[in-house]
Amino acid sequence: MSLLHIAWFRFKADVSPDRIAHHLASCRELVGRVPAVRDLKCGPNLSDRAAGMTHGIVVTLADQAALSAYLDHPAHIPVAEALKGDIAELRVMDLQT
Q1: How far apart are CA 72 and CA 65, in angstroms?
Q2: What are phi and psi of 26, to 5 degrees?
């Protein structure tokens, strides 16, 4: 089994496209830097069914224990904090698969 850590969010109106691209690139760079991460995908939402959320991220982890290792990893913390600073709305779900 594995765990999917899924977040979908909407950036604040004044966040530039370049800043958004930087955030997404920083997220992608966590692959290989955070051992708990098996895979990570992120990008803009293409659906009109996401209640206004503009972007999303899906992180594949081994299990529930790996979620804590990911969230508390020193490479993840500054990426997450910078992202949170530019987000107007955030939803998170963790699914065991």
Answers
A1: 11
A2: -60, -40
Closest CA to 27 of 89, 90, 88, 70: 70
The CATH fold assigned to 3-96 is Alpha-Beta Plaits (3.30.70)
Tokens of 38: 């098996």
Residue 1 has pLDDT above 90, yes or no: no
Q: How far apart are CA 43 and CA 96, in angstroms?
A: 22
The sign of the dihedral angle between the CA atoms of 21, 16, 12, 71 is positive
Encode pLDDT of 10-33 as tens digits. 999 999 999 999 999 999 999 999
Enter the tokens of residue 52: 């206004």
Interhelix angle for 17-28 vs 76-85, to 10°?
A: 160
Evaluated on CA atoms 62, 69, 40, 90, the torsion sign reads: positive
